[in-house]
Amino acid sequence: MAILKEKVTDIHHWTDKTFSFKTTRDKGFRFKNGEFAMIGLEIEGRPLLRAYSVVSPNHEDHLEFLSIKVPNGPLTSKLQHIKLDDEILVNSKPTGTLVCDYLLDGRNLFLFSTGTGLAPFMSIIRDPETYEKFNKVILTHTVRTVKELAYYDVLNNLNNDEIYSQVTQNKFIYFNTVTREKWERTGRITEWIESGKLWESVGVDTFDPKIDRVMICGSEDMTFDLKEIFEKLGSIEGSTKVQGGLVIEKAFAEK
Ligand SMILES: Cc1cc2nc3c(=O)[nH]c(=O)nc-3n(C[C@H](O)[C@H](O)[C@H](O)COP(=O)(O)OP(=O)(O)OC[C@H]3O[C@@H](n4cnc5c(N)ncnc54)[C@H](O)[C@@H]3O)c2cc1C
């Protein structure tokens, strides 16, 4: 396993709590859309790495990441101050369970995210294979404030994008909710599912565990609640060894 050295080529601060950045990409760095890599900075002569899902799809020649800013976080208290041309360390062996291959083929694919849990889905929704496998791809993103709806414009316009409209073929649906501010849709995603309002809002009849598939990425609480809801409905968790109806990754561990 090697640690690659990439250069920062672009930085975007969404809020005082989140930012995203692009880096160069070593030609040998290969990953499946939805996977994460250990990335970080060299601090006091030693690598300080954390798990980060790759935002950019694997056919693009750069890498992109979406990051939290934890005020006293060992890595992000420094990472949030990166500048163009700074060096980012990237472990050359990505991994993860949020990969379409670990799901059975099906009708609709639901991608449920909160906060930076959106990151792995940004690559999955721009992967042509996702749309070969599923009729509709529904991405939900729940955040506290409207400004935290990272990539809002990209997601809203994906079906009309010059390049990605050919990939999504109008099969992509973006649905967001905000929990701590007034917005078109408020509340936790669990409430939208349990009331049945989600299916209606995204234009699907209902959720059928036999043919509909689920990926979950977010806080510990959110992943736990959604796993319970979908397992009760009849979805069976898949893994790197056995395909299933549901795959999960915690976007971070809570202390
Ligand atoms: C599989 C996996 C994928 C991940 N992908 C991403 C990603 O794409 N983007 C990202 O920003 N982070 C991601 N994380 C979290 C990331 O690895 C670090 O925890 C984060 O960058 C903070 O690092 P730190 O050293 O500053 O603080 P840490 O000591 O790692 O974390 C301090 C505390 O901050 C909180 N925290 C950490 N990460 C987050 C977060 N993303 N959102 C909200 N609160 C958080 C938790 O309470 C944590 O205990 C992922 C974690 C895992 C396990």
Would you give an account of this structure?
With 255 residues, this protein is an alpha/beta fold. It folds into 2 domains: 3-91, Beta Barrel (Elongation Factor Tu (Ef-tu), domain 3); 100-250, Rossmann fold. 20% of the residues lie in helices and 31% in strands. It has 8 helices and 11 strands. Strands 4-3-6-1-2-5 form a 6-stranded antiparallel sheet. A 5-stranded parallel sheet has the order 9-8-7-10-11, with helices on one face. A hairpin with a 2-residue loop joins strand 3 (36-43) and strand 4. The chain is globular, with a radius of gyration of 18 Å. The chain starts with a strand and ends in a 5-residue tail after the last strand. The model has no long low-confidence stretch (mean pLDDT 96).
Which features does this protein show?
255 residues, alpha/beta, Rossmann fold, six-stranded antiparallel β-sheet, 8 helices, binds flavin-adenine dinucleotide
Outline of this structure?
The protein is of the alpha/beta class. The protein contains eight helices and eleven strands. The longest helix is centred in the last third of the chain and has 14 residues, at 220-233.
Strand order of the largest sheet: 4-3-6-1-2-5
* Molecules bound to protein: flavin-adenine dinucleotide
Mean pLDDT: 96
Low-confidence stretches: none
**CATH hierarchy, class of the largest domain:** Alpha Beta
Based on Cα principal axes, name the global outline.
globular
CATH architectural grouping of the largest domain: 3-Layer(aba) Sandwich
Structural class: alpha/beta
Report strand %: 25-35%
Cα-based radius of gyration, to the nearest Å: 18 Å
Distance between the termini: 29 Å
Number of domains: 2
**What is the H/E string?**
EEEEEHEEHHEHHEHHEHE
CATH third-level topology of the largest domain: Rossmann fold
Proportion in helices: 10-25%
Write out the CATH superfamily name of the largest domain.
Answer: Nucleotide-binding domain of ferredoxin-NADP reductase (FNR) module
What is the strand tally? 11
